[in-house]
Amino acid sequence: MKLSTIGLFVGLLLAIAIAIGGFSAFLGALVIGAAGLAIGAHLDGDIDLTSIARGRRD
After folding, report:
1. How far apart are CA 49 and CA 42, in angstroms?
2. Comparing C-alpha atoms, which of 54, 33, 37, 58 is closest to residue 46?
3. Largest CB tally within 10 Å, which of 8, 13, 47, 54?
């Protein structure tokens, strides 16, 4: 599936969230979507989230 198609679906879902639940539902959907994007990119190997999970070590 093309990224533009996925972007279209995400935009439509966010529009539904703001229309039904208001601004707070929009922000919640945005945060959950960003977390899903980060996890998906990690699973695809595009980004490395293990450094965030380990934290800063002295």
Report:
1. 6
2. 37
3. 47
